[in-house]
Amino acid sequence: MTQNINIDQPVKKLNEQYDNPNDETIQLSDGPDWTFELLEQYQAEIARVAAHYRLDTYPNQIEVIAAEQMMDAYSSIGMPIGYSHWSYGKKFIQTEQSYKRGQMGLAYEIVINSEPCISYLMEENTLPMQALVIAHACYGHNSFFKKNYLFKTWTDASSIIDYLVFAKNYIADCEQKYGLVQVESLLDSCHALMNYGVDRYKRPQSISLFEEQRRQEERETYLQSQVNELWKTIPQQQLQEKQDPPHFPNEPQENILYFIEKHAPLLHSWQREIIRIVRKISQYFYPQKQTQVMNEGWATFWHYTITNHLYDEGKVTDAFMMEILQSHTNVVYQPPYNSQYYSGINPYALGFNMMIDIRRMCENPTEEDKEWFPNIAGSNWLDTLHFAMENFKDESFISQYLSPKLIRDFKLFSILDDEKQNHLNVSAIHNQQGYHDIRQALSEQYNLSNLEPNIQVFDVNLKGDRALTLRYIPHNDIPLGDSKDEVIKHLHRLWGFKVKLETASSTGSVTTIAQCPTADEE
Amino acid sequence: MAHFIDRRLNGKNKSTVNRQRFIRRYKQQIKKAVSDAINKRSVTDIEQGESVSIPSKDIGEPTFHQGKGGIRNTVHPGNDQFTKGDKIKRPQGGQAGGSGEGEASDKGEGEDEFVFSISKDEYLDLLFEDLELPNLQKTQLDKLMEMETHRAGFCSDGVPTNIDIVRSLQGSLARRIAMSAGKKRQLKEALDALDKLEKQKMPDDAEIKLLIKEIEDLKSKISKVPFIDSFDLRFRNYEQRPKPTSKAVMFCLMDVSGSMDQATKEMAKRFYILLYMFLTRTYKDIEVVYIRHHTQAKEVDEQEFFYSQETGGTIVSSALKLMDEIVAKRYDPTQWNIYAAQASDGDNWADDSPNCTELLLNNILPKVRYYSYIEITNRAHQSLWREYEKITQTFDNFAIQHIRSVEDIYPIFRELFKKNSQKS
User: Fold this and answer.
1) What is the C-alpha separation between B388 and B117, in angstroms, rounded?
2) Distance from CA of B111 to the nearest CA of A (A)
3) Out of A343, A425, A451, whose CB is closest to B99?
4) Which of B10, B20, B59, B76 should be substituted to probe chain A, the one whose Cβ sees the most A Cβ atoms within 10 Å?
5) Which fold has domain B247-417?
């Protein structure tokens, strides 16, 4: 496994290319114990270097927490404020158990896409680790949150904390008013469909907390009347046009939770509001799912570049740098497919190496690079990297920037698993004929629409039993997993009437694969 | 641009609510695990927490996800042997090929148990949930309060036995300093002046005499300040506070005649221990009186109670009589909450059973909070059971239950102490 990190590389002290600050270089302490003064000093230095590389960030709010608090943060998917639900308790118990047994270490940091950008540092970390985390989270991730187009489009960093507070209070109020069990089962159902509460194409509007509250009340009254309107029309329609029933919804709807929120006939307004909350939170996390490789790669690239810059300036000691490099190499290690540690491609490794590779192509392009990436080879590396970070997601980033050199370095190969055949087939390897195929396959592998089953609201039987029909369109003939029956039960709870899940095969035939209540229960 | 916040001292238990929610939701499963555990546990470690396991499938959160099958093209790193077109045997168990779609199997079908531990308190809460001590109100109401003496600071008068020496001497020291400090300063000044005068070449005798007299005066004044004065004395102060009675005594009565084997005793012991733990949740101090009997009853210690072997016939009334005597002698029912549990295999000398009824009705039941009788046997009931059955109709603080095997103990215990509003 070739890594692009070369610890033995002789380092040029005080390289002229960096605009050296005027003050004389004083080496910062290398710990290992940290103090708030030292953290401030490091933070200031890192901020200076980050500005030098044009990293544009939200203001940082850096919070030092203990291990238990880190577990708390873990179990609430990193949200600083979350509504109460048993599933977070389960997550917490799991985390606690495996941490206590030593099966897993805790992450060094958690960073929240908010303004100010909140990052958690663990008390137990040594000073070099804290510096690494500050560079990684507070400047790497933070700048990514601020500049990447998906985050800019889909999330509103300034309002998320307010919104979470609103959600927590609203749900707590509902628990008071309508009972724990009611709210809990509703949340269960919403969580089951959380991945289907996302608008993939429309941009949501960002609104403030107060606005949100005011609108919530408006919606409450308005929505209920809307729903009733919908059903009121039924008898008239039956009278007027018997021959051609209108199709509802007109077009298949991908956002199932949104559809339920707006159209489920029997829900109370507070239930619609809770569905909306789950949907909103799901939407907030949606960009993170789509940019894992890029986000981690970007942050890793910058903690590596920034700390090396400080080292080149003589600001930090050898010991400091050794510790940084030690954990850096651990983070970006990619075990090969036949290793016992292999569990898929390490997004840190892939992302980091792609970033490094882009810089290499800009600074030292080979003939191959010039042929494959004529626009990048020899260009300004900082401009190119910023452009890449701002305008892509994992899928497009890989199909745009994965170079043949990296495919060779990683020795990537692709395996075609067709259940109709008895053998797995090696479909491409890291050679001239394979580069395109592998890049294509790897990009596909990060395409969320291939990973998450494509299920859409297809039809509502307005005139008859109000049955809701969903349609699953399989990708590459991959069937749905077993839990679909359970999810349909949850959907039935939300919709209130019969729910049916159909699958449309590639030949065009449609079969029902799940329904609730099941045929024999009716 | 950035600021640091030290959150380490903030609450650590943000997740407590969610954890409780989890436990509440899976109470049924957890309770089952707990009651299974109580029978498996050794009796001595019954007070520890418990590790509980729930089948993972019960706590899954279903989502739509892709299942097995179809066509997948996945990319892996580290190719060391393959070229395009190679055919590989499909690995069994989905170990290597399944990496990309690992999520699918993670969520649903796994047969693992979800194991986690609950604390001792949570364990006991679950164990004794919905149970209550019967007749507890009466205890609270009809009590003459017991008074208890507490220290309450210091006061300036009292009886000599209560003098606090340290405090008094502190007072004395302070008073002596206050009364003599000025004079001591004058004395020092006078001594210094005298010293100076004497060092002069031509000492002025008159002045020296004057100074010496002043020094004498001051010294005598200082020595007249008394070492201790009645003003200095401090006495320990006590006050009486009423104390609700929280004393309980638990009588364990057991038949140790030849027919009771070790296994039966072991079951009885489990029952007693459950009762003891349950009582500790209400009462701070609990005394336990062990009475064993065959034809004669005897008060013994725990070891002898459970482990010594006896033979002979059975006269239950002997134990009841002894219990009555002990109550009369040591446990005044106005001050003690009395509980009794009797375990037996049901054998009794037939003519003795009416005596037992007599004793219970007249002497014992009016005094005790609760009396439970458990019969541990696989045979048919005998005269004792039938006699006791009659009593249950008149006294609501008397209960009888039948235990056949170890598994019955906990359910029977719950049966005995189930919250029962119309009863109390």
Assistant:
1) 42
2) 14
3) A343
4) B76
5) Rossmann fold (3.40.50)
